[in-house]
Amino acid sequence: MSIPFWRDVRVLRVLLQVLFLIGIFLLAGVLYTNMLTGLSNLGLTLNLDFLGNEAGFDISEGIEYEPSETYLKAFWVGVVNTLKVSLIGIVCATILGLVVGIARLSSNWLIRTIAAIYVECFRNIPLLLQILFWYTAVILQLPRVRESISLFEGVFINQRGVYLPSPEPTAGLNVWGGFLLAGLVLAVILYILRAKQLQRLERPGFRAKWALPAFLIVAVLGWFLTPEIPFTLDFPVLRGFNFVGGLSLSPEFSALLIGLSVYTGAFIAEIVRSGIQAVAKGQREAARAVGLSESQTLQLVVLPQAIPIIVPPLTSQYLNLAKNSSLAIAIGFPDVFSIGNTMMLQTGQSIPVFAMIMVSYLIMSLTTSAAMNWYNRWITRNR
Amino acid sequence: MKILSWLKDNLFSTWYNTLLTVLALGFVYFLSKGILVWAFTDANWDVIPANLQLFSVGAYPRSEIWRVWVVLYTVCALLGLSGGIWGGLPFRFAIGIGSVGFVCALLPLFEWATRGWIFGNVALLGAFLVLGVNVRGLVSKMRPWILGAWLLSFPWTLIMLRGFGENSVLTTNWGGLLLTLILAAVGIVFCFPLGVLLALGRRSSFPAVKWVSTAYIELVRGVPLITILFMAQIMIPIFMPNVRLDKVLRAMLGITFFSAAYMAENVRGGLQAIPKGQYEAAHALGLNYPLTTLFIILPQALRSVIPAIVGQFIALFKDTSLVTIVGLLDLLGIAKTVIANPDWLGLQAEVYLFVAVIYFVFSYSMSYVSQKIETALGVGKT
User: Which residue does chain A place closest to B240, by CA atoms?
Assistant: First the structure.
């Protein structure tokens, strides 16, 4: 006697899943028809043709762009701006987080306390509030252009932003580039030689011990041997009502960058601290007992164990930073989201534009996590 | 001499530590001097007391404000009762809230009527605390009833704040700290079950369920909250033209669906830590899947991820500030309107600092409680 089909687990499993999928498709179908009727009521059709039309709105900063160019180009400007602020933000937040995280483990009570106060303050206040504070209460309250604060020669801060000297390449750059290339080749050879030697000696060690100084020596020598200095500094100069030349950061960009770096830096500091603390104290003591120096202990025992703990949460902080850069819309920095928003308001094509925004963020997220996963594997393999 | 040796050990142990101490002292001196001079001479703090009602309830009509007090009284009574019955951490928490309320009522920040209301709250909290301590031994099995009462207090709060008929207060009039707390509470209450379901779905043995859950989780986690909030504002009217939802409800939906994906990942971490033997033992006892999940797996899985879940709640609380961008007047939105008011021009720093302190107090106390729960449950000690 066989089991009736309505009590057969195999049949039930398939049946339940089919029911589930039918439910999902029904829901999607209802939403889709609603959308089509909604769109036809608005007199819109669902296609991407509008991307070729003239955008007609101005974008305050970013790669070269004219209002007469297409929507697609405008969107691309936004993507580049988001990438720019995210990448620079990640670098700043990592440096800040590393310094503060290590400071939290300092043997100096004052340093430890300052670091702890920084972390607790900035972690517990919403990022949007911090960005608005930096923008409206700090940067826009800075002195006017004529009364700019000058920290160093050529560095000016005023309410229109931050002005820095920018390096301008000269003809000498090509020669120096040749030196750098030669140095790089030399460094790779030395790295491989050193790795082979360490393998032969069956001893752990710093593989770039020869490669790094060799590269630096070639680079520095090259700088002096090149007949013309490879870079000249272009200083910002006050001309009329504004500064000309040099590198300028807009107030919106500066506020967003400060907000993102300071906020994410606090989280990264906690990750670094807990990662280092997660390495058992006995490991460190044992390393010292077998005669490794303090720096060798850090390099060969503590960091190899701490980095695999640190990297996964660090990755999610990087992703958070990139996604949080969308708060730019609150202060008018033209990132991908705020340009997308302008496009939606102008064309009414909210669905395709939303899809484009989401795909851009998904691509960014997936690439970042792929890169960090690769780094994590590389670190753990090298162990 | 103890002080001297402490100083030597902690500040001047080596020459570079001494250098660091001197540099840090200079930094602290200039920073605190700048802040103090600004706070006591340049800053104009009048803007805070003048707009205190806006900050706390936004445009909530003055004649209906008793509803907010009724809700606060309910919460205080429940808090007092739970503190009394549980003892330990809830007890200390209730005492803490009571003392903060007491100090607030003593300070001349509010009008006399408001201070009276707050005193009433503190008194009620104290009374129920005493009551709870006394009934603790008398009635057994009190705790499930209290938990049930907490759950019921949630719809009660929403109904009370909304009201019916002539005098009902539209959600568009909710604002300030009240709206921030309501958004956070709704998000927390609804994202939790949704997140658990998604996490179970992602670990389901049904491929169809698994794929749909995984796709949802990864899609939502890959995009910023602000896109979800905008979608909730723009897309819901397009996709569901027959359903009339106001702005606040749409923001609540956006926050809930966004947080559920993150909650699912936290819960999944807990589920993965459950040894296979637990499932097998439950199966051997004859429990089916729902019973196993509800009584064997989830209690263990959730317990081990409490810190992560509380962290997620803190993030959700801070993220409610993003509704400012879609035009709601939560605490941060109110701050922006106050700054834009021509009577209070140029007071950005004061207003933002005040609002920052409020956000800080709430998130810091949540993280403090979470640390205490962690030590109380012995989570994280392996």
Answer: A34
Q: For the domain that residue B309 is a member of, what is the CATH number?
A: 1.10.3720.10
What chain A residue is nearest to B28 in terms of C-alpha separation? A114
Cα Rg, chain B, nearest whole Å: 25
Query: Would you call A110 and B206 a contact, using CB atoms and an 8 Å cutoff?
Result: no
If phi > 0 it is left, if psi is from -120 to 50 it is alpha, else beta; for residue B129 that is alpha
CATH class given for the domain over A71-165+251-382: mainly alpha
Helices (H), A43-171: 71-103, 109-123, 127-132
**Residue B278, domain member (yes or no):** yes
Residue linked to tokens 């907010």: B68
Residue B215 touches partner A, C-beta closer than 8 Å: no
User: Which of B58, B130, B118, B64 shows the shortest CA–CA distance to B94?
Assistant: B130
Question: Are B35 and B157 in the same domain?
Answer: no
Tell me the Ramachandran region of residue A164: left when phi exceeds 0, alpha when psi lies from -120 to 50, beta otherwise.
beta
CB atoms within 10 A of CB B93: 18
B124 and B243 belong to one structural domain: no
> Do B373 and B236 reside in the same domain of the chain?
yes
Is 0.90 topped by the overall pTM?
no
Does B109 fall in a domain?
yes
Expressed in angstroms, the distance from the first to the final Cα of chain A is 60
How confident is the model at residue A271, as a pLDDT? 93
Domain limits for position B119: 61-168
**Do residue B77 and residue B142 come from a single domain?**
yes
Which is it for strands A156-158 and A149-150: parallel, antiparallel or unpaired?
A: antiparallel
Whether B381 shows a pLDDT value over 50: the answer reads no
Residue B361 lies in a domain: yes
Do both B229 and B375 map to the same domain? yes
Q: How far is B246 from chain A (nearest CA, A)?
A: 18
Q: Among partner residues A37, A114, A323, which is closest to B224 by beta-carbon distance?
A: A323
Same domain, B138 and B221: no
**Total number of domains constituting chain B:** 3
Of A110, A125, A341, the CB nearest to B25: A110
Residues of A in contact with B212 (CB under 8 A): 20, 24
Q: Do A129 and B223 touch (CB under 8 A)?
A: no
Chain B stretch 292-331, residues whose beta carbon is closer than 8 A to a beta carbon of chain A: 314, 318-319, 321-322, 324-325
Contact A361 B332 (CB under 8 A): no
Question: Does the residue B257 lie in any domain?
Answer: yes
Q: Are residues B66 and B195 in the same domain?
A: no
Searching chain A, which residue's CA lies closest to the CA of residue B318? A126
Beta strands in chain A (DSSP E): 149-150, 156-158, 161-164, 166-169, 231-234, 237-239, 242-244, 247-249
Measured between beta carbons, the chain B residues lying within 8 angstroms of A323 are 223-225
Cβ-defined contact of B28 to A327 (cutoff 8 Å): no
- Looking at the fold, whether B114 and B251 belong to one and the same domain comes out as no
pLDDT in tens, B150-192: 888 888 888 888 877 777 888 888 889 999 999 999 999 999 9
Other Cβ atoms less than 10 A from the Cβ of A378: the count is: 9
Residues of A in contact with B21 (CB under 8 A): 108, 110-111
Give residue-wise pLDDT tens across range A112-124: 999 999 999 999 9
Cβ contact B355–A129 (<8 Å): yes
Cβ of A17 within 8 Å of Cβ of B355? The answer is: no
